[in-house]
Amino acid sequence: MRAPTTLSEFQLYGLVAPLDSHLKVHIARGISHRDPRDSVETCAEKHVLLLPALTSAALVEQQPLVLQYHNGQLLKGRITVNLVWYGSFTPIQRSIIVDFINSLSSPSAKLPSAASWWKTTDNYKGGSSALIVGKQFLHSAYTLGKSLKNKDLMALASKFNAQSNELSAITVVLTAKDVAVEGFCMRCGTHGSTRPVNGKPRTAYVWVGNSETQCPGQCAWPFHQPIYGPQTPPLVAPNGDVGIDGMIINLATLLAGTVTNPFNNGYFQGPATAPLEAVTACTGSFGSGSYPGYPGQVLVDKASGASFNAYGLNGRRYLLPAMWDPQTSKCRTLV
Prior knowledge:
By secondary structure, this protein is α/β, with parallel strands linked by helices. The protein is built from 5 helices and 20 strands. The strands form 8 sheets. Strands 4-12-13-10-7-8 form a 6-stranded mixed β-sheet, with helices on both faces. Strands 1-5 form a two-stranded parallel sheet. It has a two-stranded antiparallel sheet with strand order 2-3. Belongs to the EXORDIUM family. InterPro entries: EXORDIUM-like.
Protein backbone atom coordinates (compact mmCIF):
# COMPACT_ATOMS: atom_id res chain seq x y z
CA MET A 1 0.00 0.00 0.00
CA ARG A 2 1.30 3.43 -0.91
CA ALA A 3 2.30 5.55 2.06
CA PRO A 4 0.27 8.77 2.34
CA THR A 5 2.17 11.83 1.18
CA THR A 6 -0.41 14.62 1.18
CA LEU A 7 -3.24 16.17 3.12
CA SER A 8 -3.10 14.04 6.23
CA GLU A 9 -1.64 14.29 9.69
CA PHE A 10 -1.69 10.68 10.84
CA GLN A 11 -1.34 9.64 14.44
CA LEU A 12 -0.45 6.10 15.41
CA TYR A 13 -2.54 4.27 17.97
CA GLY A 14 0.73 2.76 18.97
CA LEU A 15 3.13 -0.02 18.28
CA VAL A 16 3.64 -3.08 20.41
CA ALA A 17 6.30 -5.73 20.25
CA PRO A 18 4.70 -8.66 22.12
CA LEU A 19 6.60 -11.59 23.54
CA ASP A 20 6.13 -13.60 20.36
CA SER A 21 8.07 -10.86 18.52
CA HIS A 22 5.28 -10.22 16.01
CA LEU A 23 5.08 -6.51 15.29
CA LYS A 24 1.59 -5.02 15.33
CA VAL A 25 0.92 -1.54 13.98
CA HIS A 26 -2.40 0.26 13.96
CA ILE A 27 -2.85 3.53 12.07
CA ALA A 28 -5.28 5.85 13.78
CA ARG A 29 -7.80 8.28 12.41
CA GLY A 30 -6.06 11.30 10.92
CA ILE A 31 -6.83 14.72 12.36
CA SER A 32 -5.45 17.58 10.31
CA HIS A 33 -4.55 21.02 11.56
CA ARG A 34 -4.59 24.06 9.32
CA ASP A 35 -2.23 26.96 9.80
CA PRO A 36 -4.30 30.17 10.16
CA ARG A 37 -1.67 32.11 8.21
CA ASP A 38 -2.60 30.22 5.05
CA SER A 39 -5.11 31.94 2.77
CA VAL A 40 -8.32 30.38 1.52
CA GLU A 41 -6.85 30.02 -1.95
CA THR A 42 -3.47 28.62 -1.02
CA CYS A 43 -4.10 26.82 2.25
CA ALA A 44 -2.42 23.40 2.28
CA GLU A 45 -3.03 20.69 4.85
CA LYS A 46 -0.03 19.92 6.99
CA HIS A 47 0.79 16.23 7.26
CA VAL A 48 3.11 13.86 9.02
CA LEU A 49 3.50 10.13 9.31
CA LEU A 50 4.74 9.26 12.76
CA LEU A 51 7.23 6.42 12.65
CA PRO A 52 7.31 4.55 15.96
CA ALA A 53 10.50 3.39 17.59
CA LEU A 54 10.90 -0.32 18.27
CA THR A 55 11.09 -0.30 22.06
CA SER A 56 9.85 -2.47 24.88
CA ALA A 57 8.10 -1.00 27.91
CA ALA A 58 9.91 -3.55 30.04
CA LEU A 59 13.29 -2.18 28.98
CA VAL A 60 12.68 1.52 28.36
CA GLU A 61 10.81 3.71 30.82
CA GLN A 62 8.24 5.83 29.01
CA GLN A 63 8.92 9.55 29.27
CA PRO A 64 6.13 11.89 30.47
CA LEU A 65 4.07 13.35 27.65
CA VAL A 66 4.35 17.14 27.59
CA LEU A 67 2.38 19.51 25.39
CA GLN A 68 4.24 22.80 25.51
CA TYR A 69 2.33 26.07 25.80
CA HIS A 70 3.49 28.48 23.10
CA ASN A 71 2.06 31.62 24.75
CA GLY A 72 -0.72 32.11 22.23
CA GLN A 73 -4.42 32.84 22.63
CA LEU A 74 -6.72 30.09 23.92
CA LEU A 75 -10.51 30.06 23.70
CA LYS A 76 -11.85 30.54 27.21
CA GLY A 77 -15.08 31.69 28.82
CA ARG A 78 -18.45 31.32 27.09
CA ILE A 79 -18.00 30.08 23.51
CA THR A 80 -20.81 29.86 20.98
CA VAL A 81 -20.67 26.82 18.71
CA ASN A 82 -22.49 27.50 15.43
CA LEU A 83 -23.32 24.51 13.25
CA VAL A 84 -23.36 24.26 9.46
CA TRP A 85 -25.07 21.03 8.37
CA TYR A 86 -24.01 20.28 4.80
CA GLY A 87 -26.03 17.55 3.14
CA SER A 88 -28.76 15.30 4.46
CA PHE A 89 -28.91 14.68 8.20
CA THR A 90 -31.97 13.26 9.94
CA PRO A 91 -33.46 15.15 12.90
CA ILE A 92 -32.29 12.32 15.17
CA GLN A 93 -28.72 12.59 13.88
CA ARG A 94 -28.70 16.34 14.43
CA SER A 95 -30.10 15.96 17.95
CA ILE A 96 -27.38 13.46 18.92
CA ILE A 97 -24.66 15.95 17.99
CA VAL A 98 -26.43 19.00 19.46
CA ASP A 99 -27.03 17.12 22.72
CA PHE A 100 -23.35 16.17 22.81
CA ILE A 101 -22.09 19.73 22.47
CA ASN A 102 -24.55 21.00 25.08
CA SER A 103 -23.61 18.11 27.38
CA LEU A 104 -20.01 19.33 27.54
CA SER A 105 -20.96 22.33 29.65
CA SER A 106 -24.05 20.92 31.40
CA PRO A 107 -23.07 18.69 34.33
CA SER A 108 -25.00 15.44 34.32
CA ALA A 109 -26.43 13.83 37.44
CA LYS A 110 -24.61 10.66 36.42
CA LEU A 111 -20.87 10.19 36.34
CA PRO A 112 -18.77 9.74 34.33
CA SER A 113 -20.21 12.48 32.14
CA ALA A 114 -19.36 14.38 28.98
CA ALA A 115 -19.03 17.47 31.19
CA SER A 116 -16.46 15.78 33.44
CA TRP A 117 -14.49 14.82 30.32
CA TRP A 118 -14.56 18.41 29.04
CA LYS A 119 -13.57 19.77 32.45
CA THR A 120 -10.00 18.62 31.77
CA THR A 121 -9.72 21.63 29.43
CA ASP A 122 -10.06 23.80 32.56
CA ASN A 123 -6.57 22.65 33.54
CA TYR A 124 -5.08 24.45 30.54
CA LYS A 125 -4.13 28.10 31.16
CA GLY A 126 -6.89 30.68 31.34
CA GLY A 127 -9.69 28.88 33.13
CA SER A 128 -12.81 27.18 31.82
CA SER A 129 -14.33 27.00 28.34
CA ALA A 130 -18.13 26.73 28.27
CA LEU A 131 -19.57 25.62 24.92
CA ILE A 132 -23.11 26.65 23.97
CA VAL A 133 -24.82 25.67 20.71
CA GLY A 134 -25.76 28.83 18.82
CA LYS A 135 -27.22 29.16 15.34
CA GLN A 136 -27.67 26.30 12.91
CA PHE A 137 -27.63 26.49 9.11
CA LEU A 138 -29.05 23.62 7.03
CA HIS A 139 -27.55 23.11 3.56
CA SER A 140 -29.64 20.07 2.61
CA ALA A 141 -29.74 21.14 -1.06
CA TYR A 142 -26.00 20.49 -1.53
CA THR A 143 -25.46 24.02 -2.80
CA LEU A 144 -21.77 23.35 -3.51
CA GLY A 145 -22.29 19.84 -4.85
CA LYS A 146 -21.41 16.51 -3.30
CA SER A 147 -17.65 16.75 -3.77
CA LEU A 148 -16.05 19.51 -1.70
CA LYS A 149 -12.57 20.96 -1.79
CA ASN A 150 -10.76 22.43 1.20
CA LYS A 151 -11.61 25.90 -0.06
CA ASP A 152 -15.31 24.98 0.03
CA LEU A 153 -15.10 24.11 3.72
CA MET A 154 -13.37 27.42 4.37
CA ALA A 155 -16.02 29.23 2.32
CA LEU A 156 -18.86 27.67 4.32
CA ALA A 157 -17.21 28.64 7.60
CA SER A 158 -16.29 32.13 6.39
CA LYS A 159 -19.78 32.84 5.05
CA PHE A 160 -21.29 32.01 8.40
CA ASN A 161 -18.74 34.09 10.29
CA ALA A 162 -19.53 37.11 8.11
CA GLN A 163 -23.14 36.89 9.31
CA SER A 164 -22.27 36.33 12.95
CA ASN A 165 -21.68 38.92 15.65
CA GLU A 166 -20.10 36.63 18.23
CA LEU A 167 -16.59 37.60 19.27
CA SER A 168 -15.87 34.19 20.80
CA ALA A 169 -17.25 31.46 18.59
CA ILE A 170 -16.43 28.25 16.76
CA THR A 171 -18.05 27.38 13.45
CA VAL A 172 -18.47 23.63 12.98
CA VAL A 173 -19.04 22.37 9.43
CA LEU A 174 -20.54 18.87 9.37
CA THR A 175 -20.75 16.95 6.09
CA ALA A 176 -23.20 14.11 5.45
CA LYS A 177 -22.29 10.52 4.60
CA ASP A 178 -22.80 11.04 0.85
CA VAL A 179 -20.51 14.09 0.67
CA ALA A 180 -16.96 13.50 -0.53
CA VAL A 181 -14.39 15.91 0.88
CA GLU A 182 -10.88 16.43 -0.42
CA GLY A 183 -8.55 14.20 1.57
CA PHE A 184 -11.38 12.52 3.50
CA CYS A 185 -10.43 9.10 4.90
CA MET A 186 -6.79 10.16 5.01
CA ARG A 187 -8.12 12.59 7.62
CA CYS A 188 -11.42 12.49 9.48
CA GLY A 189 -11.63 16.17 10.35
CA THR A 190 -9.76 19.44 10.54
CA HIS A 191 -9.63 22.57 12.63
CA GLY A 192 -8.15 25.96 11.87
CA SER A 193 -9.24 29.57 11.57
CA THR A 194 -10.85 31.70 8.89
CA ARG A 195 -9.36 34.92 7.59
CA PRO A 196 -10.69 38.23 8.99
CA VAL A 197 -13.93 39.27 7.26
CA ASN A 198 -15.20 42.87 7.10
CA GLY A 199 -12.84 43.96 9.83
CA LYS A 200 -13.86 41.12 12.15
CA PRO A 201 -11.11 39.06 13.79
CA ARG A 202 -10.32 35.57 12.58
CA THR A 203 -12.59 32.86 13.93
CA ALA A 204 -11.91 29.23 14.74
CA TYR A 205 -13.63 26.55 12.70
CA VAL A 206 -13.92 22.77 12.68
CA TRP A 207 -14.86 20.29 9.97
CA VAL A 208 -15.96 16.71 10.61
CA GLY A 209 -17.36 14.28 8.04
CA ASN A 210 -19.69 11.29 8.37
CA SER A 211 -17.62 8.29 7.30
CA GLU A 212 -20.40 5.67 7.45
CA THR A 213 -20.39 4.79 3.74
CA GLN A 214 -16.88 5.95 2.85
CA CYS A 215 -14.33 4.79 5.42
CA PRO A 216 -15.80 3.75 8.79
CA GLY A 217 -12.81 1.48 9.41
CA GLN A 218 -10.60 4.56 9.47
CA CYS A 219 -12.85 7.25 10.93
CA ALA A 220 -15.44 5.38 13.03
CA TRP A 221 -13.21 2.95 14.93
CA PRO A 222 -13.86 1.35 17.43
CA PHE A 223 -17.47 1.08 16.17
CA HIS A 224 -16.31 -0.54 12.94
CA GLN A 225 -13.70 -3.15 12.07
CA PRO A 226 -10.37 -1.38 11.45
CA ILE A 227 -8.73 -1.53 8.04
CA TYR A 228 -5.27 -2.01 9.54
CA GLY A 229 -3.91 -3.76 12.59
CA PRO A 230 -5.48 -6.18 15.07
CA GLN A 231 -8.96 -7.23 13.95
CA THR A 232 -10.75 -7.07 17.29
CA PRO A 233 -14.57 -7.09 17.20
CA PRO A 234 -16.06 -3.59 16.89
CA LEU A 235 -17.96 -2.03 19.78
CA VAL A 236 -21.68 -1.37 19.56
CA ALA A 237 -22.33 2.35 18.96
CA PRO A 238 -24.10 3.94 21.97
CA ASN A 239 -26.56 5.92 19.85
CA GLY A 240 -27.12 3.17 17.31
CA ASP A 241 -25.46 5.06 14.46
CA VAL A 242 -21.88 4.09 13.56
CA GLY A 243 -21.34 7.16 11.40
CA ILE A 244 -22.68 9.69 13.91
CA ASP A 245 -21.06 8.06 16.93
CA GLY A 246 -17.79 8.10 15.01
CA MET A 247 -18.34 11.79 14.27
CA ILE A 248 -18.78 12.41 18.01
CA ILE A 249 -15.30 11.00 18.70
CA ASN A 250 -13.73 13.17 16.01
CA LEU A 251 -15.76 16.24 16.98
CA ALA A 252 -14.71 15.84 20.61
CA THR A 253 -11.08 15.54 19.50
CA LEU A 254 -11.24 18.68 17.38
CA LEU A 255 -13.20 20.82 19.85
CA ALA A 256 -10.60 20.07 22.53
CA GLY A 257 -7.83 20.90 20.06
CA THR A 258 -9.58 24.09 19.03
CA VAL A 259 -10.00 25.62 22.50
CA THR A 260 -6.45 24.68 23.57
CA ASN A 261 -4.70 25.50 20.27
CA PRO A 262 -7.06 27.65 18.18
CA PHE A 263 -4.50 29.66 16.23
CA ASN A 264 -1.52 27.30 16.13
CA ASN A 265 0.28 28.93 19.06
CA GLY A 266 -1.39 27.31 22.05
CA TYR A 267 -0.73 23.86 23.52
CA PHE A 268 0.89 21.27 21.30
CA GLN A 269 3.87 18.99 20.92
CA GLY A 270 6.09 18.76 17.86
CA PRO A 271 6.21 21.08 14.84
CA ALA A 272 3.44 23.65 14.43
CA THR A 273 2.81 22.29 10.95
CA ALA A 274 1.92 18.88 12.38
CA PRO A 275 1.07 19.30 16.06
CA LEU A 276 0.02 16.70 18.59
CA GLU A 277 -2.78 18.34 20.55
CA ALA A 278 -4.95 17.71 23.62
CA VAL A 279 -6.56 14.53 22.29
CA THR A 280 -4.51 13.58 19.23
CA ALA A 281 -1.58 13.07 21.61
CA CYS A 282 -3.64 10.28 23.22
CA THR A 283 -5.18 8.69 20.12
CA GLY A 284 -6.77 5.25 20.42
CA SER A 285 -7.44 5.19 24.17
CA PHE A 286 -10.98 5.27 25.57
CA GLY A 287 -10.58 3.41 28.85
CA SER A 288 -8.05 1.94 31.24
CA GLY A 289 -5.85 -0.84 29.93
CA SER A 290 -5.99 0.30 26.31
CA TYR A 291 -3.35 -0.82 23.84
CA PRO A 292 -2.99 -0.79 20.03
CA GLY A 293 -6.21 -2.12 18.54
CA TYR A 294 -7.97 -2.33 21.93
CA PRO A 295 -9.84 0.79 23.13
CA GLY A 296 -9.67 -0.13 26.81
CA GLN A 297 -12.22 -1.04 29.45
CA VAL A 298 -15.44 0.89 28.92
CA LEU A 299 -19.00 0.73 30.21
CA VAL A 300 -21.49 -1.56 28.47
CA ASP A 301 -25.27 -1.21 28.49
CA LYS A 302 -26.73 -4.55 29.58
CA ALA A 303 -29.84 -4.19 27.43
CA SER A 304 -28.36 -3.00 24.14
CA GLY A 305 -24.74 -4.12 24.45
CA ALA A 306 -23.65 -0.59 23.49
CA SER A 307 -20.26 0.63 24.71
CA PHE A 308 -19.78 4.09 26.21
CA ASN A 309 -17.86 5.98 28.87
CA ALA A 310 -19.84 9.20 29.32
CA TYR A 311 -23.41 10.16 30.16
CA GLY A 312 -24.93 13.23 28.51
CA LEU A 313 -28.11 15.27 28.38
CA ASN A 314 -31.47 13.73 27.50
CA GLY A 315 -30.32 10.25 28.40
CA ARG A 316 -27.54 10.26 25.82
CA ARG A 317 -24.43 8.13 26.11
CA TYR A 318 -21.15 8.75 24.32
CA LEU A 319 -17.73 7.21 23.88
CA LEU A 320 -15.08 9.91 24.35
CA PRO A 321 -11.32 9.64 23.80
CA ALA A 322 -8.56 10.18 26.34
CA MET A 323 -7.38 13.76 26.81
CA TRP A 324 -3.98 15.01 27.95
CA ASP A 325 -4.14 16.57 31.42
CA PRO A 326 -1.57 19.35 32.04
CA GLN A 327 -1.74 18.75 35.79
CA THR A 328 -0.48 15.19 35.52
CA SER A 329 1.18 15.24 32.06
CA LYS A 330 -0.73 12.05 31.29
CA CYS A 331 -3.56 11.00 29.02
CA ARG A 332 -6.72 10.86 31.10
CA THR A 333 -9.68 8.57 30.46
CA LEU A 334 -13.08 8.69 32.13
CA VAL A 335 -13.11 5.01 33.08
